[in-house]
What does this fold into?
Amino acid sequence: MQPAKLLLERVKRGELVTGLLATDHVWTDLVELSQRAGLDYLIVDQEHGPHGPELVAEVCATGRRLNFPVLIRPRANDYANLRLAIDLGCCGFLLASVETTADLDVVRDAVHMPPRGRRRPGGVGNRWVEDFRYPAWKETVEDHFLVMPQVETKLGLANAAALAAHEMTSVLAVGPYDLSAELGVCGVMDAPVLLEALAHLRSTAAAAGKPMWMIGDAEKLAQQGWNFLCIGEPSWMLVGAVKQHLAAARGVAKPDKPEGYAGK
It folds into this structure.
């Protein structure tokens, strides 16, 4: 699982690493487009998106063929959903609303085969390995599989130190919008209580020797010292880009004049 291994190494070196969270619209070419645009990874959002397993498996396979990291945010963090998600061939998880270390114990069971877990591998995820003996699974998949639990609730915030220190946590992540709602400042990204919570999470992750993942305005976040970034959702970014082009065109366009108009 070389793409995940190299991605995490870059993050740990402090390089600026950027990607997309695809929720509304996912298609296989999005992987190649992301790579050509200079992005570093793609997350397929099954928590909020309507994407079925066949499409997601092909997107993950495209990432494997291009040596480009494709992660999944599963529909739920129970054992069955997590095991299905890894069977689809992704190289990591972004896990919504993780609150306790017990949640991460379930992740361990779903990612690791016996004796460390209880996963029964299947599907196109098998194509990561050259043979089906346990050392191949451990060295190729388990040792480099990215697990990024998102802190999005007050309980998760309270347990942040334990979540960051857990053996399954590769990177501590945050869902700033949902966390803002939990803190009573929904959508106010510069609210002091949210900024305080984010500072606490960053220091907690650093104390555990783990990087942090953040989503939002890439330029502002980079200025604030974040280096593992999600710069947005492709469909929303498309809408924003179209609006910018339309605004620019309308700003220079001359008003239409009726035929034969000879005004001064």
Observations:
- Strands lie at 17-22, 41-45, 70-73, 92-95, 146-151, 172-174, 212-215, 228-230.
- The longest helix spans residues 234-252.
- The chain is about 45% helix and 15% strand.
- The CA atoms of residues 164 and 205 lie 6 Å apart.
